[in-house]
Design brief:
By secondary structure, this protein is mostly helical. Helices cover about 80% and strands about 0% of the residues. The chain is built from four helices and no strands.
Length: about 90
């Protein structure tokens, strides 16, 4: 479950970097290389997160509603941070 929490945070950070840094650089400063670099990094982070969600679901650590919640949250900026807090609550750390 710790790996899932870390993957959720990393995915959220890369999504924010893509939206708040790379895309503004592309459209305001005309530096498209920022998206060319950050896009694949975020894609890899999302795939790792997806793998952790599927693995945690298969192991019975989360149910299908929890998996759905995590996946929906991954598409929302700051959703990964909310997911990480929810995972901590599931583990009983908060």
């Amino acid at each position: 479950m710790v790996g899932l929490m870390r993957a959720a945070i990393f995915e959220a950070l890369t999504l924010l970097a893509l939206f708040c840094v790379a895309m503004p650089l592309k459209y305001t400063a005309e530096i498209p290389q920022a998206v060319s670099v950050m896009g694949p990094i975020h894609g890899l982070a999302f795939m790792v997160f997806l793998w952790f969600v599927i693995r945690s679901w298969a192991e019975g650590l989360i149910n299908w509603l929890g998996a759905l919640r995590l996946l929906v949250g991954a598409f929302i900026p700051f959703g990964g941070f909310v997911n990480e807090r929810w995972l901590r609550q599931q583990m009983g750390e908060i």
